[in-house]
From TrEMBL:
The active site is at residues 202, 333. InterPro entries: Aldose_1-epimerase, Aldose_1/G6P_1-epimerase, Gal_mutarotase_sf_dom, Galactose_mutarotase-like, GH-type_carb-bd. Belongs to the aldose epimerase family. Pathway: Carbohydrate metabolism; hexose metabolism. It comes from Stephania japonica. Beta-D-galactose binds at residues 99-100, 202-204, 268. This is Aldose 1-epimerase. NCBIfam families: PRK11055.1. It is an enzyme of class 5 (isomerase). One of its GO terms (biological process) is galactose catabolic process via UDP-galactose, Leloir pathway. It holds the Pfam family Aldose_epim. Residues 1-28 form the signal peptide. It catalyses: alpha-D-glucose = beta-D-glucose.
Length: 368
C-alpha cells in the first residue's frame, strides 16, 4: 500500500512538472524570439488592445460606441513592418527623453553631453533612433490572466546611445483592468551613472474611429491652468505662464476646434498639471466624441501633458488604406516638461542607480 502511495505521489509530481514545462513552452511560443517582430493581443470584455514589440507600440484599441458597435480608435498601420518607417511615432513609447532637447545638448554634473539632432539643431523623442525605433523584448505575456491580462516589454539602452550617458534598462507594462481601463506603467533603472529619463506614450486617439475624419468636434477638458510656452522651434523658454484668456484654456470643456484657428498650426504644447504628485495619480484630461458617444479619461503621476492635434500629419496612408490628414487625432502625452535638462526651474528628470524612474498612466473608457 505504501509502495502504491509512493508511486502515485511520484506520478503526480511528474505530471505537475510536465504541465509546468508545457505552460513555459506555450509562453515562450507566444513571446517568440527576441529579434522577431510580433503582434500581441490583450482582451477583457469589450476592450481589446493589440500591441507590437517594435517601439512597445499600441497598434489598435477596439471600443464599443453608444450602440455597442466596436471601432478601432487609434491611428496606425495594418502591416507591422510599416511601423519601422513611421515618422509620426504612431502608438510608440518615445525616449530616452520624450519631446525636445534644445540645441541637442545638456550639461549634467559639470559635463556637457552632445545628443543626436534630428529636428533641425534640436533632439526630438530621443534622436534619430530613439526607443520608438528599436525592437523591445517581450518579458512577460499573460493574455489569459482572467483578472488583468498584460504584457511587459523591456529594452536595454547602452551608455552613449544617441549621446545619452549611462546604461539604462526600461520596462513598459500594458494591463487591461475592470471597467474598460487600460493601465500603462513605464519604469527606468540607471545601471551605472546618472542620466535623464522622460518616457512618453505617443498614441494618436480618434474616439470616433481611426477613419472618421478630424477631431475638431471632440470636446476636451484639461485639468491644468498653466503651460510652458515655447519659441519658434517649439523649445520651451523656461517660463511657466497662466492659460487664462488664451486659446489654451480647457479648464472647462470646449471643442478642440473652437479656438484652434487662433493658433498658427494647432495645439502642440506642454500643460502643467494642477496638484501634481509623483506619489499619486491625478485626472488630467477628459475627451468626448459626440457622434459615437465614446469618452476617455486619462490619469497620471507625471507633472505635464503634451496636447498635440496631429498638426504635421500630411496624407499618411494608414489602416485599411485610409488616409490620415491634419488634425486626424489627439495625442495626450503625459511626461516631464520638455527640455527640462536645460531648465533648472523645471522638475528634474535625472535618475540614478539609487533613484529609479516610474511613470504611470490610466485610460478609462466609457460612453456618454
Amino acid at each position: 500500500m505504501r509502495k502504491l502511495s509512493s508511486l502515485i505521489c511520484v506520478i503526480s509530481v511528474a505530471l505537475l512538472l510536465m504541465l509546468l514545462l508545457l505552460v513555459d513552452a506555450s509562453a515562450a511560443a507566444n513571446r517568440g524570439s527576441d529579434d522577431e517582430l510580433k503582434l500581441l493581443v490583450l482582451k477583457k470584455g469589450d476592450l481589446s488592445v493589440k500591441l507590437t514589440n517594435w517601439g512597445a507600440t499600441v497598434v489598435s484599441v477596439l471600443l464599443p460606441d453608444r450602440h455597442g458597435k466596436l471601432g478601432d480608435v487609434v491611428l496606425g498601420f495594418d502591416d507591422l513592418e510599416d511601423y519601422k518607417n513611421d515618422k509620426s511615432y504612431f502608438g510608440a513609447i518615445v525616449g530616452r527623453i520624450a519631446n525636445r532637447v534644445g540645441g541637442a545638448k545638456f550639461t549634467l554634473n559639470g559635463k556637457t553631453y552632445k545628443l543626436v539632432a534630428n529636428e533641425g539643431n534640436n533632439t526630438l523623442h530621443g534622436g534619430k533612433k530613439g526607443f520608438s525605433d528599436v525592437l523591445w523584448k517581450v518579458r512577460k505575456y499573460r493574455p489569459d490572466n482572467v483578472d488583468s491580462p498584460y504584457v511587459t516589454f523591456s529594452y536595454s539602452s547602452f551608455d552613449g546611445e544617441q549621446g545619452f550617458p549611462g546604461a539604462l534598462d526600461v520596462y513598459v507594462t500594458y494591463t487591461l483592468l475592470d471597467g474598460q481601463r487600460l493601465s500603462v506603467t513605464m519604469r527606468g533603472h540607471a545601471k551605472n551613472k546618472p542620466t535623464p529619463v522622460n518616457l512618453a506614450q505617443h498614441t494618436y486617439w480618434n474616439l470616433g474611429g481611426h477613419n472618421s475624419g478630424d477631431i475638431l468636434s471632440n470636446t476636451i477638458q484639461l485639468f491644468a491652468s498653466r503651460i510652458t510656452p515655447v519659441d519658434n522651434s517649439l523649445i520651451p523658454t523656461g517660463k511657466i505662464i497662466s492659460i487664462k484668456g488664451t486659446p489654451y484654456d480647457f479648464l472647462l470643456p470646449h471643442t478642440v476646434g473652437s479656438r484652434i484657428n487662433e493658433l498658427p498650426h494647432g495645439y502642440d504644447i506642454n500643460y502643467v498639471i494642477d496638484g501634481h504628485s509623483h506619489h499619486s495619480s491625478k485626472k488630467v484630461a477628459v475627451v468626448h466624441e459626440p457622434k459615437s458617444g465614446r469618452l476617455m479619461e486619462l490619469w497620471t503621476n507625471a507633472p505635464g501633458v503634451q496636447l498635440y492635434t496631429s498638426n504635421m500629419l500630411q496624407y499618411t496612408k494608414g489602416k485599411g488604406g485610409y488616409v490620415y490628414k491634419k488634425h486626424a487625432a489627439i495625442c495626450l502625452e503625459t511626461q516631464g516638461f520638455p527640455d527640462a535638462v536645460n531648465h533648472p526651474n523645471f522638475p528634474s528628470q535625472i535618475v540614478t542607480p539609487k533613484k529609479p524612474y516610474k511613470h504611470v498612466m490610466l485610460y478609462k473608457f466609457s460612453v456618454k
